[in-house]
UniProtKB/TrEMBL annotation:
Pfam families assigned to the protein according to its UniProt record, in alphabetical order: PDDEXK_4 (PF14281)
InterPro entries the record matches: PDDEXK_4
Name used for this protein in its record: PD-(D/E)XK nuclease family protein
Source lineage: Bacteria, Pseudomonadati, Bacteroidota, Cytophagia, Cytophagales
Native source species: Cyclobacterium jeungdonense
């Protein structure tokens, strides 16, 4: 990567980099601390819960009235499972058409329930729909700094579920800072209780805060919302809580996203060269080098759009699959052709062609493997052998795909991979 640059070219690129208008805007944005950062509370769950409770209140000083809570109901609908959409069809239809009146709204962060515990955010809504009253309770578990502990979500469900009926509905929300791409790939929420709807902070930005900024609001409210947006978009690189690495960025505003995308397009060669320098610098910490090398491998992988065919004894078994599926397709073929026995299982479980074990049981996943989705942990096991379920690694790119091809074609005569 760096061999494409001479020292003079690197100097020229850095000068262009510093004079880039996008860089100057981003530098001003990211090098000025938000108010919550100054107070040291930008990643505290209690601070975010307090802010969201304020924002969703219809009588609060932001003077947005019912606009925020209505937008939040839209977010709930958007990310609900098909099961919930069917169960609450009429209610959710009223959310879409806003064919309801809010008769009562009660919101409380850090809501204590005697002899039970404390909810991050608790909301009671009384809606009038087609002349009929509906009481809705929203139970929100907010996770910014850590993962769920003490089986909280199942406890909340067991507490509230017995009181639910057609006119008294309880909706459970699991709020986390994962990206929207990660969120839409989930087949179920990441919390223990699968009755929860998982939403993310980016959806709060996209469907609530940015639309609110387009309303006729006071300068004070605009400033508060803008400051909050800044606190969500500030990177948190080294902070950990309870052994759980936090999300780099909780959410991005539309303007920042466009600026950053433009900045990348104009400066990607210099950025990649900088990353390469860090990944190969022995003075950097090992974790830093490895993380950046993995990012570089992924970026290189993204530029290679090749697909693959898999053959056995000259016959096509699978065609036009992506690199990320090469391990899975190989396992599928071995299973379909009856080639898996105890010895082969041992071979597969010991393989680390992609730097992670090719096969792994769910109970053996590390926090890092779950967080970065090295395996499809939320899906059913992809291989069942002697009653045990195994998941297949998805950490494949141009930097390691040749390893599995070479190793497996040698191990299994008749196996053949074609690049399209």
């Amino acid at each position: 990567m760096t061999d494409k640059f001479t020292i003079d070219q690197i100097r020229d690129e850095i000068i262009k980099f510093k004079n880039d208008p996008d860089f100057q805007k981003l530098e001003n944005f990211y090098y000025s601390k938000s108010f919550s950062e100054i107070l040291g509370v930008s990643r505290r769950e209690i601070s975010h819960s307090g802010f969201l409770a304020w924002l969703l209140g219809n009588l609060e000083s932001h003077n947005l009235g019912e606009f925020p809570i209505k937008k939040f109901l839209d977010i709930i609908l958007k990310f609900s499972s098909d099961k919930l959409k069917s169960k609450h069809r009429d209610l959710f239809n009223s959310f879409v058409t806003e064919d309801y009146l809010i008769e009562r709204l009660f919101i409380k962060p850090e809501y204590s329930i005697k002899n039970f515990g404390r909810l991050d955010i608790y909301i009671e809504l009384t809606l009038l729909i087609a002349g009929k009253t509906k009481n809705i309770r929203l139970v929100i578990e907010n996770k910014v700094e850590s993962r769920e502990n003490n089986d909280q979500t199942n406890s909340y469900f067991r507490y509230f579920n017995p009181s639910e009926n057609d006119d008294n509905i309880v909706i459970y929300i699991y709020l986390t800072p994962i990206s929207t791409l990660e969120l839409i790939e989930l087949t179920e929420p990441e919390c223990n209780c699968k009755e929860f709807i998982q939403v993310n902070y980016q959806s709060i930005v996209d469907y609530l805060i940015e639309p609110a900024l387009n309303q006729n609001i006071s300068a004070r409210t605009e400033n508060i919302l803008t400051e909050y947006l800044k606190s969500l978009s500030q990177p948190s690189i080294n902070e950990e809580a309870d052994g759980h690495k936090q999300e780099l960025i909780m959410a991005l505003g539309n303007e920042e996203r466009k600026l950053l995308s433009s900045f990348w397009e104009k400066n990607q060669k210099l950025i990649l060269a900088s990353l390469y320098a860090i990944s190969s610098d022995p003075e950097q910490e090992k974790d830093t080098r490895e993380n950046i090398k993995e990012a570089l491998d992924s970026l290189s992988s993204d530029r290679d759009r090749s697909t693959y065919n898999l053959k056995y004894n000259g016959e096509i078994f699978s065609r036009n699959f992506k690199k990320s599926d090469i391990g899975l397709q190989t396992i599928n073929l071995l299973e379909a052709k009856g080639l898996i026995d105890d010895n082969v299982i041992s071979f597969l479980r010991e393989d680390k062609s992609c730097s992670f074990f090719l096969l792994k049981k769910k109970e053996d996943f590390t926090d890092t493997e779950i967080k970065y989705r090295k395996y499809r942990a939320n899906d059913a096991p992809e291989l069942i052998y002697r009653g045990e379920g195994y998941y297949v690694a998805r950490n494949w790119g141009i930097g390691n795909i040749h390893k599995i091809i070479n190793k497996f074609t040698e191990k299994f005569p008749g196996l053949e991979y074609e690049t399209n």
